Amino acid sequence: MSGAEAASGAGTVSQAGRRAGERGGAGRAPGGGRVGPAARFTVLVLLAVVFLLPLYVLVVTGFKPFAEAGAGRAWLPPQTWSLEGWSAAWDALGAGLWNSVKLVVPSAAAAALLGSLNGYVLSKWRFPGADTVFTLFLFGMFIPYQAVMIPLQQMLVGAGLMGGLFPLILAHTVYGIPICTLIFRNYYASLPQTLIEAARVDGAGLLRTYAHVVLPVSAPAFAVALIWQVTSAWNDFLFAVFLTGPGSWPVTVQLNNVAGSMVVPYNQQMAAAVLASLPTLVIYLVLGRYFMRGLMAGALKG
Amino acid sequence: MSARTPGRAGAPARRRRPAGRARVRAWLPGLLLISPSILLIAVFVYGMIGWNARLALSDKHKPIDDAAFVGLENMAALWQEARWPGAVANAAVFTVVFVGGALVLGWLLGLLLEKGIAGEAVFRTLFLAPMAVSFIATGVVWRWLMNPAPAERATGLNALFVHFGLDFLVNEWWTAPNLGMAAMALPAVWQLSGYIMALYLAGFRGVPEELREAARVDGASEWGVYRHVVLPQLRPVTLTAVIILGHMSLKVFDLVIAIAGQQIVADVPAVYMWTTVFEVRDPAKGAAIAAYMLLAVAALVLPYLVWTVRRERSEGR
């Protein structure tokens, strides 16, 4: 997980080394390592089992045929493995999955681009009041979106923009600006100011410096911002239920419709939940360290 | 990079007002570049908050009504009815269990992992994975797990408890009248404690080894080192974690919808607001609920934000 993670990893190794050395030297120091690694490992494994219970339920129930998906054999693996739940879930969610892709891609790209420009200005081309502007941006990241939802709806209806995916793309772009700005500002703050100064002395203006000096080194921050935006827009439910209608429901709304109706069997519900979660889970597993950095930024822990 | 163009960097050459104009020329382009975003945030965050406040203070109780100013009438009226105080009480129970639970579990996971252990990366990845999933998907599984049906028909944890002879643990989960929201908080704890673990893990590892070593040399036991050296250093992490969890808790919506729908037993302000807008169709009342949610989050988050940005600036970042 990034440089910090690598550093702390190295710290762990050297700590462990030092602790081992200390034990060897001081003998059985009283109280030293009262909770041994074996005990810690055991507790961790137990907790991991508890954490994995929902995953077990999802997969096992998803593969059951309809007849087995009831209460009787709830925790047992399927007697016959079946894809019936998966194909039903695919039929129910297909349109929603596609809608989610169509809204997530443009809104993540737009928010990341704006965030990059903002972060650049707020860290390297500061103007009077830049900190106040930044704080005002940041607050936009924490607000309950309910507090803007009714006016937003009214405005979109008034402007004739309701319908289709546009309202959602707009919302995820605009309300993604704060976190993206934060991610890029923190990242650019670590670039040496001399790099910018050198470009300035060479006569490069604001945009040229951005395009030739800053942008080429921005890939990691773009990865963090894009992953954050994709994940949060994909998983969003609140904006989706307020701003879209049946034809353009993203996957979370369709999943809730599938699961919320009492007539849908469990095998299909669980398969649907897995399908809806797979894209973000895969991103997390493949690009975990960028995901992690987004989380840290979200806690203002740059 | 471009070749040197002497004329462009010529600000210092203007000797008349060397400071002022040169400085404005230095920052103005930046302000212009960021201005589209400033405009968007001004309109979509602060403008809409203001608009919502005006609605909340108006008598626009039907979408087609005109809005006349009625002061705090709607804000006060909420407390006179039966549903709103119940929703607030539910949110309070949820907050206590969710924030407390995720904090303790996240801290414990961080503590167990901080000295390094076999398979650390696997544990970390596993505990953090729920963060990548939507509350809706989480809700689907946990509704199955927390199925309140009696043992013979139950799925989920109740069935598991019966199977292992732990019948006394069988319970009604989120459908329990008073403390049902404590059960509702369990999936949220499951989902967020990995995040808190990551925050604490970074915090633990940020404590310089020299400090611990010094305490050991002074004769502190390993527990003493934690008690007097490491844990006090983690207070800022705890503050951050409380702010993050607290503001999420005040806004909780998706999870409740996915598990309980709009049942009153699990009502919270965000769900009530949704019902008010979509079913009751009362914009003024919906806006009043939203205003209360905003006030609660602002009271929690604003001091922290201002403090964070100031401290960061004073550290010269």
From TrEMBL, chain A:
**Where is it predominantly found?**
membrane
Give the residue ranges for region: Disordered.
1-33
One protein family per Pfam: BPD_transp_1
Membrane topology (UniProt): Multi-pass membrane protein
The membrane-spanning stretches of this chain are 38-59, 103-121, 133-152, 164-188, 209-228, 270-292
State the compartments where it is located.
Cell membrane; Membrane
Question: Keywords of this protein's UniProt record, alphabetized?
Answer: Membrane, Transmembrane, Transmembrane helix, Transport
Q: Cite the ABC transmembrane type-1 domain residue spans from the record.
A: 97-287
Biased-composition ranges, Gly residues, are 23-33
Q: Which InterPro entries does the record associate with it?
A: MetI-like, MetI-like_sf
Report the sequence similarity comment from the record: Belongs to the binding-protein-dependent transport system permease family.
Name of this protein: Carbohydrate ABC transporter permease
Species annotation: Nocardiopsis endophytica
Q: What is the lineage of its organism?
A: Bacteria, Bacillati, Actinomycetota, Actinomycetes, Streptosporangiales
From TrEMBL, chain B:
Please name the CDD domains in this protein's record: TM_PBP2
Q: Which Gene3D superfamilies match?
A: MetI-like
Membrane topology per the entry is: Multi-pass membrane protein
- Superkingdom classification of source: Bacteria
InterPro entries, per the entry: MetI-like, MetI-like_sf, UgpAE/MalFG_permease
Q: List where in the cell it is found.
A: Cell membrane
Q: Where are the transmembrane segments?
A: 24-49, 91-113, 125-145, 179-202, 252-274, 286-307
User: Where this protein primarily resides, as one coarse class?
Assistant: membrane
What keywords are assigned to this protein?
A: Cell membrane, Membrane, Transmembrane, Transmembrane helix, Transport
SUPFAM superfamilies the UniProt entry points to: MetI-like
Keyword Protein transport annotated: no
What are the residue boundaries of the ABC transmembrane type-1 domain, all occurrences included? 88-306
Q: Which family does it belong to?
A: Belongs to the binding-protein-dependent transport system permease family.
Name of this protein: Sugar ABC transporter permease
